[in-house]
Design goal:
Blueprint (H helix, E strand, L loop, with lengths): L1 H10 L2 H22 L7 H22 L2 H6 L1 H18 L1 E3 L2 E7 L2 E3 L1 H18 L8 H20 L3 H18 L3 H13 L1 H7 L2 H11 L10 H12 L11 H4 L11 H34 L3 H25 L17 H22 L9
Antiparallel strand pairs: 1-2, 2-3
Length: about 375
């Protein structure tokens, strides 16, 4: 057993694991402050610890499975995700007018997390295939259809944050995979032209979020409340913060969803600019390592998959942090490895496991066979 553990630790990328674990440990402290009254341990914090250990197990399993297996099975996972997205619209738990969760006994499962993972897989497989040439317009429409189907179902829940996350990540994979820039520009123009149609199908509260993003003071006690309170919390933290569990906006629950979507506000209030900077620096090195793994991957499929995972984390971090400081609209995306949330944590660690496997494959010696 000890030899197996030593062999595993010798083969994995210790730097990437260390960066992710440090972020998770910081997350434990922040979630504890956001969910506990005094120093009484909350049920949410206990659940987060359970999800963390389950996530570690998932990371270990995914890091031991050849990433090519996931790519080969990508279409299976894609259609399982589509089926899950259809099921959640029918029997999913409804919260604040949205159906995003399927209950599995005492646990809950968020199909949009699987959908994001499956889209990365199918894009990496289709674009990375040596037999596929992306210079035909029909192939581009096929890619857009594969992306559009889960996007429509995710928007039906509605989950605008996950949908907005998939669009730039998919665009990055397509561009790096070889789609010509003029076609990318054409897709951007087509998306811009469809904005009035998308606006028509947005929920009222989503439209309000767009309005208050421009001017939160238009509705300070309604749709603009979250953004205003978040900016007050971050601004009041100053350079060094008010101290752990000393933030008034956090401890008095002025910030809604401060343990999930707005957890960066807790960091800003209690740990100040320095605490926020430390977290962003850790994210920077984690992303740098992830993009390095993508660059060094042995095959196109592995490179695009690693690129998609790294881009997914990068876009999610930018959207969440931008949302809490008022630079981007409120979307409901969590902060990776820090926010409370089981599905998000499990899938994030599974993605890290895949990156570890790609990194391990990069360092393995290539076996050359054949006659001299």
């Amino acid at each position: 057993m000890n030899n197996a553990v030593k062999t595993y630790l010798k083969g994995v990328d210790a730097v990437l694991i260390s960066e992710v674990l440090i972020l998770s440990v910081i997350g434990f402290f922040v979630v504890f402050s956001a969910t506990s009254h005094g120093f009484e341990v909350s049920q949410l914090w206990k659940k987060q610890m359970f999800w963390f250990f389950l996530s570690l197990l998932g990371m270990f399993v995914f890091s031991r499975i050849d990433y090519r297996f996931w790519i080969e099975a990508s279409y299976i996972f894609y259609w399982i995700a589509i089926l899950s997205l259809l099921i959640v619209l029918v029997i999913g738990d409804e919260t604040n007018g949205a159906r995003r969760w399927i209950k599995l006994g005492i646990l809950s499962y968020q199909p949009s997390e699987l959908a994001k993972f499956s889209v990365l897989l199918v894009l990496a497989r289709y674009i990375g295939s040596k037999t596929v040439e992306l210079f035909f317009l029909g192939r581009l429409f096929f890619l857009l259809a594969m992306l559009g189907l889960p996007l429509v179902l995710i928007l039906k829940q509605p989950d605008l944050g996950s949908a907005l996350l998939l669009i730039p990540v998919s665009a990055i994979i397509m561009y790096v995979g070889g789609i010509q820039f003029r076609w990318m520009l054409w897709m951007v123009l087509m998306g811009a032209a469809s904005c009035p149609l998308i606006w028509h199908y947005l929920k009222d509260y989503q439209k309000e979020r767009m309005f208050v993003f421009i001017n939160p003071q238009d509705d300070p006690l309604g749709a603009g409340y979250n953004i205003i309170q978040s900016m007050i919390a971050i601004g009041s933290g100053g350079i060094t913060g008010k101290g752990y569990m000393q933030g008034t906006q956090t401890q008095l629950s002025f910030i809604p969803e401060h343990h999930t979507d707005f957890i960066f506000s807790v960091v800003g209030e209690e740990w100040g600019f320095l605490g926020c900077a430390v977290i962003l620096i850790l994210y920077y090195f984690m992303l740098q390592k992830s993009f390095e793994i993508a660059r060094k991957a042995r095959d196109m499929e592995g490179s695009l998959l690693a690129l998609g995972i790294a881009s997914m984390f990068a876009v999610q971090i930018v959207i969440n942090v931008g949302m809490t400081v008022g630079l981007l609209p409120v979307t409901g995306l969590t902060l990776p490895f820090i926010s409370y949330g089981g599905s998000s944590l499990v899938f994030s660690y599974a993605a890290i496991g895949i990156l570890l496997n790609i990194s391990y494959a990069n360092r393995r010696p290539v076996l050359v066979t054949g006659k001299n």
